[in-house]
Amino acid sequence: SVSKTTEVYSDTVPAGSVVGLTQPDGLLGKGGSVELQVSKGSNAVIMPNVVGETIDASVAALTQLGLKVIIDTNQLRKNWGIVLVKSASVAAGSTLRIGDQVTIRSR
Questions:
Q1: Cα torsion for 79, 85, 90, 91, to the nearest 10°?
Q2: Phi (first) and psi of residue 58, to 5 degrees
Q3: Which residue, among 28, 53, 42, has the nearest Cα to 95 in the 3D structure?
Q4: Residue 10 in contact with residue 19, Cβ under 8 Å?
Q5: pTM of the predicted model over 0.85
Q6: What is the pLDDT of residues 64-83, one digit of tens each?
Q7: What is the dihedral of CA 55, 60, 66, 69, to 10 degrees?
Q8: How many alpha carbons fall within 13 Å on the CB side of residue 8?
Q9: What's the first-to-final CA gap in the chain, in angstroms?
Q10: Can you spell out the DSSP letters for 34-69?
C-alpha cells in the first residue's frame, strides 16, 4: 500500500507521474507500504518581457508565474496602473525557477 505521497518538481518526469518511491520499513513484504514521489512537472518558467508594461500588469504576470517580485520605484502605489517598467533584473526569455526573485524598476 502507499503510506504517503509527496509532490516534487521534475524537469524530466511529466506532472502526475511517479518520480520515485521509498520503502520506509526496509524490505517490502506482503502487506508492506511505500512512499511515492509524484511529479508536479517542471518548476522552470520563462521570464516575460515586462519592460514597457505597467507596474501593476508586470507584478500580476510575474506573480502568476510563481516569481517573487521586488518593485524599485519612486512612484505612489496609486499610480502603478499607469507607470511603466523601465527595466528588469532578469532579461526577457531567461529561464527561472518558481520562487526566484525578480526586480522591476520604474526609475
A1: 160
A2: -65, -45
A3: 42
A4: yes
A5: no
A6: 999 999 999 999 999 999 99
A7: 20
A8: 15
A9: 58
A10: EEEEEE----EEEPP--TTSBHHHHHHHHHHTT-EE
